[in-house]
Design brief:
The chain is mainly alpha-helical. The protein has two domains: about 1-65; about 70-109. The protein has helices at about 5-10, 15-25, 30-35, 40-50, 55-65, 70-80, 85-95. Helix 1 (about 5-10) crosses helix 4 (about 40-50), helix 4 (about 40-50) packs antiparallel against helix 5 (about 55-65) and helix 5 packs antiparallel against helix 6. The two termini are about 25 Å apart.
Length: about 110
């Protein structure tokens, strides 16, 4: 399963972080901060994917899933966005095993 860090790694094979920041109109430290947080914002993921010829909408959705707090709604969104991924795979995407533990029910689901 791909994460936005995979997209960032792909982008950094093409340009340096300062080059990406200039070409996308980002703060100089934006990509460094994203790497430290271990996820891109949906807007940055969209822009990088578009520049790399990837499916920008799909990458923006992956970024949205990654940035959501753990909840039943997040799990539901992740399953739909990521094509029926399993709960264990969602935990890997989040970089935590927290999703394997009971999460509060979604009031909208």
């Amino acid at each position: 399963m791909k994460s936005t860090m995979d997209l960032l790694d792909q982008a950094l094979k093409v340009k340096t972080p300062p080059e990406w920041a200039r070409s996308l109109g980002l703060e100089r430290t934006a990509l460094h901060n994203a790497k430290r947080r271990e996820h891109l914002s949906p807007a940055v993921a969209y822009a990088l994917a578009e520049e790399l010829g990837e499916d920008a909408q799909q990458w923006a959705l992956v970024a949205a899933v990654e940035s959501e707090k753990d909840s039943a709604c997040r799990q539901r969104m992740a399953r739909r966005v990521l094509g029926g991924a399993t709960t264990a795979a969602l935990a890997v995407l989040a970089g935590t095993s927290a999703l394997l533990v009971h999460t509060p029910p979604c009031i909208l689901c």
